[in-house]
Amino acid sequence: MGLMLGKITVETPKYEVLATTNDYEIRKYSPSVIAEVTYDPKQFNSDKDGGFTILANYIGALGKPQNTKPEKIAMTAPVITKSASEKVAMTAPVVTKSGGELVTMGFILPSKYVKAEDAPRPVDERVVIREEGEMKYGVVRFSGVARDAVVAEKVEKLRACLERDGYKVAGDYVLARYNPPWTLPPLRTNEVMIPVE
């Protein structure tokens, strides 16, 4: 029932809030290990289904873990997705962006995995395990369904606010989704995150 009502009961990334305004937070995230996959969303029913299923199989959320141990890996939140139209470099939280381009989706692995080599190796060669160093982001949180138009509006406003306040944007945005799709839309937690220097 908690999942339907939006309660987040899994591990989430550790961060320190450096600044808070009426429009956003500046957060410094600790290093993490990420399992990610880059795919063409046109090959699946939706831009989210393909990557999520591949990663869920890796950690064992949908049955036997598809990794070399095989070790069941706890689900964390958020799931992160971003466009992979430039060189693929995933950042943390699931972030999805569509529009006829490749998408990179990632699961932040539990904090017990400190280095990429600590995590079980994926059986599926499409899954890449990588380390993400300490990162600083401008972040805006919102509820509801993270539709493309809503996300685009949040990104535009966040970018403008960060630039207005003197922050230098250091990359493309990341969309973080904290709840499963069956969570009631008003109770969902989403974040748009833009890396800053």
Oligomer: single chain
Q: In percent terms, what proportion of residues is strand? A: 25-35%
What is the N-to-C succession of helices and strands? EEEHEEEEHEE
Distance between the termini: 40 Å
Number of domains: 1
| Major sheet summary line | 9 strands, antiparallel
pLDDT average, as an integer? 88
Q: In the CATH classification, which architecture applies?
A: Alpha-Beta Barrel
Within the CATH hierarchy, at the fold level, what is the topology?
Answer: Multidrug-efflux Transporter 1 Regulator Bmrr, Chain A
Features:
alpha+beta; 197 residues; 9-stranded antiparallel β-sheet; SOUL_heme-bd; globular; Reg_factor_effector_dom_sf; 27% strand
Description:
- The protein is α+β, with helices and mostly antiparallel strands and 197 residues long.
- It has a single domain (15-195), classed as Regulatory factor, effector binding domain (Multidrug-efflux Transporter 1 Regulator Bmrr, Chain A, Alpha-Beta Barrel).
- It is built from two helices and nine strands.
- It has a nine-stranded antiparallel beta sheet with strand order 1-2-7-9-8-4-5-3-6.
- The longest helix is centred in the last third of the chain and has 17 residues, at 148-164.
